[in-house]
């Protein structure tokens, strides 16, 4: 009932494993206690009983911080290895009665893993432009949650389409960022994005750039003659426009990543549980899909792939009718393993790197897990070298799909835009300048798939609330790139073919 990592003294934990778990003062680590909820049990009653147990076990002056509720099934605690053992034993002096009381309330104690953040020509690659012209599907009427670092509501990309301010979503934005794991979440800034990742992801899904070219600043990464990286200003070709894959989709910002692009898995679990609450457990679907362009490691010796608390919460959400699109991760080069505790500190002599590098929650069975390909020449260049590869370690095919993820142009803000000369304002520039920048990774690929599915659902509304059917439609209609299925899954997403097949 306890992950062995949490019982090991800090000096005995390998560095590559230790960095996956947040450690705080006095040798304590942040952990997730999964409560034992029997059939018909009231979660609040079980939480109250756990708090009573916690207060009974830890009565000394140097007691750990009080537990914080997470979702419906978990409590976030900050405990040292000896304190974890004392809690599951029911006290400092173990007895059978005390242990039985603890066992009746605690199902498992997990690490609270550290989670990290993982469109012009790319829209054509997935046939979104042709689909929009043919089926008039721009995402109108569909609501998508972006679980990320926030979305900058002041960016002009989102204002003309009321992406974030429409009545259907204006009151739904939430901030789940954790400033102190020992304290309840008190964030109140879901529509800001100091890190910049969430705004870039959101701009790929929805929204539209201002039509006035004078309002735009676009930074492209063009290497120098010596191959050194360099940001240069780029102009759009005549007649071209920047927009999300489904520009009419309304977005809900669920901020979990902090200003440095990190969070804990408990914050993501809280966000997933919030979507279930908004949707009344599936009885009234307000939010139709979620995008998670983030991921974390998982304990390969504690549970099978896809069985972590984060993956199970995602599966519960999909079971209520919500589509879940997740980035596969950027560990495909085999530099570090997705499974914490694996012998994965590098490609030790294996010139092919390693497979099974999908991060959680991409290992969840019901997730649509997405890898990355070149933005407009995927048949030539194939799957991006660092896009995480399958299969899952329990033998399931992942990723399901691939989509453009290399040098994708989208909305820029926060740290992502700071210090880029090509995005700097000049004395004659308008005050509301719309800044755009290139970024790469499976985060961007997942956003393409979220946008494509939102567009699909706006034209095929009968499939709203049927995430597994939607997943199968896009798998069946994907374009085979001729790469191994552990790299490309079913292939490149094709929105036009998905629409014509239904």
TrEMBL record:
InterPro entries assigned to the protein according to its UniProt record, in alphabetical order: Peptidase_S8/S53_dom (IPR000209), Peptidase_S8/S53_dom_sf (IPR036852), Peptidase_S8_His-AS (IPR022398), Peptidase_S8_subtilisin-like (IPR050131), Peptidase_S8_subtilisin-rel (IPR015500)
Entry keyword Hydrolase: yes
Active site (catalytic residues): 148 (charge relay system), 197 (charge relay system), 443 (charge relay system)
Family matches, as Pfam families: Peptidase_S8 (PF00082)
GO biological process, alphabetically ordered: proteolysis
A single MF term (Gene Ontology): serine-type endopeptidase activity
Domain Peptidase S8/S53: residue ranges: 139-489
Alphabetical UniProt keywords: Hydrolase, Protease, Serine protease
PANTHER family per record: CEREVISIN-RELATED, PEPTIDASE S8
Family in the record: Belongs to the peptidase S8 family.
Designated name of the protein: S8 family peptidase
